[in-house]
Amino acid sequence: MTRKYIPVEEAAKEWMQDPEFVAAYDALEDQFALAAALIKARGDADMTQEQVAAAMGTSQAFIARLESGKALPSTRTLERYAKATHTRLRIRFEPEKPGQGRRADGKYRAEPSTP
Fold first, then answer.
1. Closest by alpha carbon to 34, among 80, 84, 68, 64?
2. Per-residue pLDDT tens listing for the chain (115 residues)
3. Is the whole-model pTM more than 0.70?
4. Which of 15, 38, 56, 88 has the fewest Cβ atoms within 10 angstroms?
5. d(CA 30, CA 62)
């Protein structure tokens, strides 16, 4: 039996044509952005997960969870990570893209609201 390998770019191109996949992918954008920022800070500092963990007084497994995008760390944890990687934590607010965020009733919008 031989396996057929499909390049990730080819698979992603197909997935991005599915509106449900695109909606789920977009919903995770912030988590992906945080994970990417953490990994970039560590890479720019030329540090391993083990080195960041030691500087923070925690475990490599904890750093791996942070960088996976599956955890939502506290501001204090992000500040400790920034200090360990010799960076500065900056948090900012940006306007929502159409169709994102919460409505006035507190529920998330599925589609852009109409006035």
1. 68
2. 677 788 878 888 888 899 898 888 888 887 788 999 999 999 999 999 999 999 999 999 999 999 998 888 999 999 999 999 999 999 988 887 766 555 555 555 554 444 4
3. no
4. 88
5. 20
